[in-house]
Write a structure and sequence with these properties.
This protein has 386 residues and is of the alpha/beta class. The chain is built from 14 helices and twelve strands. Helix 1 runs antiparallel to helix 2 and helix 10 packs parallel to helix 14. The protein binds pyridoxal-5'-phosphate. The site of pyridoxal-5'-phosphate (PLP) has 16 residues, from helix 3.
Length: 386
């Protein structure tokens, strides 16, 4: 055995695990205990209590997730939004300003737009491909720059290396929502992001049966996030920790299958006359393609597209498809189809949606792990009937 770093496949199974297992158990049991007996010499800060995210279920997950993204530390939370809002409230103070990428997950966009002001925070939204625009938004009080690896729902890949360089030049904390890529396709710490976060509800757990979040990155920043989470109470419960832990073990095989099927489907959609636009970084025609090839190990399982006949045709396609479930959310083993204007971006006004390029007929597809050929046949058949 040589000393090279294990692959991510091996880390998914073994990183952070307690060995030998407790009572010989191969799988870490659920520590369904809010508190733990005090030990001799234990200090106040050593107290184990479920809200403090320090049970064995939490600490093993933290170590595994940090290893997956080649980062220093990680903490899990009760949802992706708990991770996002706790990052803001732990690392920003009244008066601070944040530069956000303009096409963000609707919940993040909404929160920044509608709640920042009440906390004395301010922000600007910038085009991910225009570093000149980022510089124009910079203020003396700018503290953070926040991007998504692959945006939702337009599946764009911004100039992520430039984000890191810009953050370093101006002393900003760089934060990235890595939900869509998952650590299999992209590990932000490897190109220098300070913090990455996930809606673990999606690919990390992968089975559409729990809500959870993850913050991964620099040890000092993760410690601040964890401390604020102790106050705000966004810890993940032990049973959900167990399910996330179980889901993670198959992340690589799921995501690689999703990468393959999404690329096949994007190709079929792009060639179909009823489709006017396909957003997928794996397509050579996509503006983010070269960047995605350079930075990612796979193009991901998310794509979106628009039909020539707009919202009416989108409705017909949804009713013709047999395999995908018509439902919001993403990253599960089952393919899901949704219309962002009615789900993830419904909180935005029609003007805000149009400004970020989300039309009423846009269809977003989260590709599951069903057979690639079955999915392709299903889309071909449905498209022929709209
Ligand atoms: N980030 C992205 C990219 C998302 O798609 C979502 C939810 O859809 C979130 C964050 C929020 O995650 P959660 O629903 O787990 O709070």
């Amino acid at each position: 055995m040589n000393d090279r770093e294990p692959t991510i496949d091996t880390k998914l199974i073994h990183a952070g695990e307690i060995r030998p297992g407790i009572e010989g158990a191969v799988v870490l049991p659920i520590f369904q205990s809010v508190n733990f007996e005090s030990m001799e010499g234990e200090e106040y800060h050593d107290i184990k209590y479920m809200r403090l995210s320090n049970s064995p279920n939490h600490t093993v997950l933290g170590a595994k997730l940090a290893a997956l993204e080649s980062a220093e530390a990680a903490v899990v939370s009760s949802s992706g939004m708990a991770s996002i809002t706790t990052i803001f409230h732990s690392l920003l103070s009244a008066g601070d300003h944040v530069i956000f990428q303009d096409c963000l997950y609707g919940g993040t966009y909404d929160y920044a737009q509608r709640e920042f002001g009440r906390h004395g925070l301010s922000c600007d939204f910038v085009n991910g491909d225009d570093p000149g625009g980022w510089a124009r938004s910079l203020r003396p009080e700018t503290k953070m720059i926040y991007f998504e690896t692959i945006t939702n729902p337009l599946v764009q890949v911004a100039d992520l290396e430039a984000v890191v360089a810009f953050a370093r030049e101006h002393g900003l904390i760089s934060v990235i929502d890595n939900t869509f890529a998952s650590p299999i396709n992209f590990r932000p710490a490897e190109i220098g992001f300070d913090l990455s976060l996930h809606s673990g509800t999606k690919y990390l757990n992968g089975h559409s049966d729990i809500v959870c979040g993850v913050v991964i990155g620099r040890r000092d920043l993760v410690a601040k996030v964890k401390k604020m989470m102790n106050y705000l109470g966004g810890s993940l419960d032990a049973h959900a920790c167990f399910l996330l832990h179980r889901g993670l073990k198959t992340l690589a095989v799921r995501v690689r299958q999703q990468n393959v099927s999404a690329l096949a489907l994007a190709g079929v959609l792009e060639e179909h006359p009823a489709v006017i636009r396909v957003n997928y970084p794996g397509l050579a025609s996509n503006s983010g393609h070269e960047r995605a090839r350079r930075l990612f190990d796979g193009f991901g399982g998310m794509l979106s597209f628009e039909l020539a006949d707009g919202a009416r045709a989108a409705g017909r396609l949804e009713s013709e498809l047999r395999i995908p479930v018509i439902a919001p959310s993403l990253g599960g083993v089952e393919s899901l189809v949704t219309r962002p204007a009615a789900t993830s971006h419904a909180g935005l006004t029609p003007q805000e949606r149009s400004a970020v390029g989300v039309s009423d007929g846009l269809i977003r597809l989260s590709v599951g792990i069903e057979g690639t050929d079955d999915l392709v046949d299903d889309f071909r058949r449905a498209l022929s009937r709209i």
